[in-house]
Amino acid sequence: MNSRYGYLRNEKGLLSWIVNKVLRSGWAKHPVKQTFTLRAMCTAPIGKNGRGIKAIQCEGCLQYFRPKEVQVNHKNNCVQNGVSWEELPHIIRRMFDVGLEDLEHLCKDCHDIVTYSERYDCTKEEAKLHKKAIRFSKKSAKEQKELLVKAGIEPAKSATGRREQVFNYLKERAK
Ligand SMILES: [Zn+2]
Questions:
Q1: Residue pair 171/129 in contact by the 8 Å Cβ criterion
Q2: CA of 105 relative to ligand 1 center, distance in Å
Q3: Which fold has domain 123-175?
Q4: What is the tens place of the pLDDT at every residue in 10-61?
Q5: 46, 70, 88, 175: least surrounded by Cβ within 10 Å?
């Protein structure tokens, strides 16, 4: 076991542990975050048999969800790629020095799309299509080929190639 970093192994591991564990658990208790969630709480007919229960609206898809299915997102990406000691104070500031107007509630699907678009620097629309293409690539090769043929596309040999074909197909259709 490394005497300085332990199972985190190196400086990079330590820095991402600070951001993902230490800062995020602090953020979970942030008073502005708590106020934000309390204010968004409403009643929506999403319970059993359309019963009205406590809910929060996702600001991405505008659907209502149970409060624990919704996450609070910083509208401005606060953890950009490559954490360093020099960058850490800025991350802390972007994460904690926020007001209600800097936050939004997102359901898991919408949050994934935003995270993807920030990570790969693409639009939310493109991220949505990439997510769909990734879901497609989890099907068996046989199923993928059948679906492509159905859409009038000669299936590529490689899985990556087929994923690209689906992405382009979806993009073309979204125009
Ligand atoms: Zn949503």
A1: yes
A2: 8
A3: 1.10.720
A4: 999 999 999 999 999 999 999 999 999 999 999 999 999 999 999 999 999 9
A5: 175
Residues in CB range of 43: below 8 A, 6 or more apart? 52, 53, 54, 55
Domain extent listing, the chain: 1-121, 123-175
In angstroms, what is the span from residue 69 Cα to ligand 1's centroid?
A: 10
How many A from CA of 71 to the centre of ligand 1?
10
List the one residue out of 76, 79, 59, 58 whose CA is nearest residue 67.
58
- How much of the chain exceeds pLDDT 70, in percent? 99
Taking the alpha carbons of 152, 155, 161, 166 in that order, is the dihedral positive or negative? positive
Mean pLDDT of 72-81: 84
